Amino acid sequence: MRVAILISGGGSNMLALADSMTGAHPARPVLVLSNKPDAGGLEKAAARGIATACVDHRPFRGDRPAFEAALHDRLVQAAPDLICLAGFMRVLTENFVEAWAGRMLNIHPSLLPKYRGLDTHARAIAAGDSEAGCTVHEVTPALDDGPVLGQARVPIRTDETPETLAARVLVQEHRLYPAVVARVATGDRRRIDL
Ligand code: GRF
After folding, report:
1. Residue 102 sits in a domain of what CATH number?
2. Is residue 66 domain-resident?
3. Which residues form the domain of 66?
4. Any domain includes 194
5. For position 13, what pLDDT does the model report?
6. ipTM of the assembly?
7. Is residue 31 part of a domain?
8. Which residues form the Formyl transferase N-terminal domain (predicted)?
9. Are 107 and 176 spatial neighbours (Cβ–Cβ below 8 Å)?
10. Is 181 a domain residue?
11. Which of 163, 169, 173, 181 is deepest in the core (most CB within 10 A)?
12. Ligand 1 midpoint to CA 52 (Å)
């Protein structure tokens, strides 16, 4: 299975995925693509011998369809069977999502359907939740809303800050995403709960 990974920043989830796809694993990373030329993950991917590319969204200034057409064309060149959004911070329109329907996953740092969107950890703490976590889901046109393929949970501590919670959730993200992709690569989309 050919996997393209989309990032916007450090790419710690991309690294966890890339480092899991070795040996007998049926998937391989064929492209790491960022919308930001300075994304730290691009260098890390290149250091691992993974093809990288950048489709900078800034020259498209608000012309989202043009940006997404460039993104789509670059992805088509790589011919992925699966796209993994991993810390990719651009909202994708219905047109783009439908073109890759069923072949695009995302990891979101909350226990969806709770806390779609941003600032998930601060919101969970403010709500007095006893636990937080992360979700891998199929990407559908609605934001952070597609079928859930996996979740991992962490307890929220009494002296928790968004930063301390994010760090513990990130550890679980690096376990969950590779586990889900490994299962999806065998054609199995049953949900995983860690
Ligand atoms: C992670 O919390 C991930 O859930 C969110 O972006 C954050 C950074 O991810 N989508 P990464 O370190 O760039 O993979």
Report:
1. 3.40.50.170
2. yes
3. 2-189
4. no
5. 98
6. 0.91
7. yes
8. 1-181
9. yes
10. yes
11. 181
12. 18
Q: Provide the token pair at 151.
A: 């979740």
| Nearest CA-CA partner of 84 in 132, 20, 37 | 20
User: What is the reported pTM?
Assistant: 0.96
Chain-centroid distance, C-alpha 19: 15
pLDDT at res. 62: 84
Q: How many domains does the chain have?
A: 1
Joined together, the tokens standing for residue 99 give 């073109």
Pocket of ligand 1 (CB under 6 A): 7, 9-14, 86-87, 107, 109, 134, 170, 173
Span from the CA of 36 to the centroid of ligand 1 (angstroms): 14
Q: Which of 33, 88, 107, 112 to mutate to test the pocket of ligand 1 (most atoms within 8 A of CB)?
A: 107
> Is the Cβ–Cβ distance between 126 and 112 less than 8 Å?
no
35 is in an annotated binding site: no
pLDDT in tens, 147-160: 999 999 999 999 99
